[in-house]
Design brief:
This is Putative amidase domain-containing protein. The protein is an alpha+beta fold. The protein has 8 helices and 10 strands. Strands 1, 2, 3, 4, 5, 6, 7, 8, 9 and 10 form a 10-stranded antiparallel β-sheet that branches. A hairpin with a 5-residue loop joins β3 and β4.
Length: about 375
Amino acid sequence: MLFPGSPANAGPSPTGTSPSAVKAGSANMDDLPHKAANSVAAMEKQVNIDAFIAKKDKPDSRLKGLPVKPAAQKSADGVAASAQEMAQSMANGPKGARFVDKVRVKVNDVAVKKQSNGSLVVTAQIEISRHIAKDDVNWEGIIPHEIKIDARGCIYGLVVKDRDYYDKHLVSYLPKPQKDASNSPEGRRDDKSQYTGEKLAQGQQRKAPAVVPLTLTQKQKKKAVEYARKYAKSPNRKYHYYKENEGGDCTNFVSQAMEAGGWEQVYHSRFDYKDDNAWWYGGGLPFSYPRNSWTWSGAENFFRMANGSGGLKRTTLLNNFYELQPGDILQYKAKGATEMTHTMIVTKVENGEPYLSYHTDDQIDQPLSSMPKGEKKWYPQRT
């Protein structure tokens, strides 16, 4: 969706919500420059689509009446009109079996950075909560937004970093692995040990478990789901959070949940971080020692660890993603991708609909049917 003055690559439009409950997060709206405050007002209007889908009236912006330059107000009105046109066209169509009937939104962590040319870059975390009527499920998420404003106060760029954005822009920070690396002499080590997160004393070794379970019990899966729910929107500070320029945090998050559910870390030596038959997180300093194995945080590496011939065979591929149960894993390759794009954990199933939780962007209980449209190759996995 484009708006006056926006570039063609301004980013996808969001799919969320009514600005009625917008609250300032860490920033005081009254202290923001007028142009920045105006951009947040425009952002409130821009994230109004679900409210229209739910056929709710759009309330006045909480920032209405702030003194802003006429050009900036015109730009903001253009954003609102474009969002309204799209939303109403969607609302006029028949509602599907699942639809959003209640929406809440908060604008958190607003930050303003002034550029050398006088323009501004406003970033904010949009927290959205939607209620799925049919299944009585609350789908919650946090979507980063970035608005660019020129020196006159006109908005000329809006980027919404939702899942569709990451599918198109996120690039793995991991080097491409060597072919059959886990089956190479480098990958077959004699000093196998079980790594549990604490540092090993020099020369100390632990024996690997005799059997690595192929499936988790229902009790273990419940623990994995509980972990995912707890840390989906508020990441566990005991672990590094992989930012966008580091390849994203989706697989790191799922690995944490799987460990909470009962998967044991497998560590052979400090040289095994590239191998498919290793899976561990050590928290080491990046410049001195790998923080974790590639299989822990890389989507493609995780898949080979869980399913590949040289991996640990922790999961079983399913024929249909509607066979998924809470605690199972769903990965996909976006259109044109040669490696896995995204990793998610199933945290709920209602009326046959899997609900997914994940990082980058951070979501709890997103219905599978609402995932960004576009050609994908799905890999549902039983844990």
